[in-house]
Give the backbone structure.
Amino acid sequence: MKPRSQRGDSGLATSTTDWEWRKEFLKLCGPGVLAGITLGMWLTLLRERGRAMEWKHCLRAASITNQSLQNSFWARVERLRFDAKVRDVSIQPPVFILGHWRSGTTHLHELLAQDPRFGYPNSYQVSFPHTFLSTEQFGSRVLSFFVPKHRPMDQMEMTLDRPQEDEFALCCSTLKSPCMGWVFPRQRQDFEKYLTLSKISAEELAQWQDAFVWFLKKVQFRCPRPLMLKSPPHTARIRLLLQMFPEAKFVHIHRDPYRVIQSSLHTFEILYRWHGLQTPNPGELEDYTIGQYKAMYEDFFREKAAVPEKQFYEIAYEALEKDPIGELGRLYQGLNLPDFATAEPMVRRYLSSIADYRKNRLPDLPDQLRLRIGRDCRENFEKWGYPV
């Protein structure tokens, strides 16, 4: 049987086999979340953790090195061209989409991004935070050739202009992100402090804040509309984000913890293969995933009360899936956003475009793991009304 033909970003017919080689290429030597790193930052990382890198990942390391040289050149160009303009940009109060990985944050982000009155950082921008003002126009064309049709963990379409997590920009511009645990999974505990940012030094926190504000200013310079921002780690940073952006609004999406952790285990296992410079220790993924989930929501439950009433809204993934138009209308009203009627036609059009989307079919959770999730995450089940 011949492979089914599809349309690529270039408009040329592309077979499913052609998409598959892109996946294999990126797993072997793609730079992953460090695609946008500068040479200085890369050399710092190599000095600190180079000995932990495995030789079987040398092609990825070579790819990162090559990319860092280009990034450093274009970062210098970008500073000369845009720094003075970006410095004067004011960040409009953003809307933060909160929720653990695999809770439906991407789906909600995509739905809200259909509203032309809002903006968002896209995949290219978060991958190249130092250079995107100078390189996106031509760089995205080149990189689109290497981008698979779907994300590695599910069947969601991948393109460089789609909404993406701003955490990736912070990962390669500061190295202060739990996503660095995907690069060095055997040392991921060293990066877990960056999930909540509550136990780091004042100097590190200031560096993180400066990098975040500068990235948002650059996105805001390119897109002068309020930004919809989605990154799971922000779920554990509410108080800090509220201090930085007092008028920001927050929408939290939750999902059955059994499904979230089951899907997270599947996702993180794949992400290690796409981003890693070392192989994870066997048998640690369950502890890591459940521990991270608990740490995230301990801070979330403690800090969400600090948000003024009209600046916080909570939504269940299951309800959004069942009635997306109704739930979004209530979300807009609950956060006092502009009239949803303006965005509704675009949202309906997007929903029609993904009508054939099929979720992953994952094996049932082992009984012992299910019991552990029910015990360790009991607070989540109780607060959101999911059966244990």
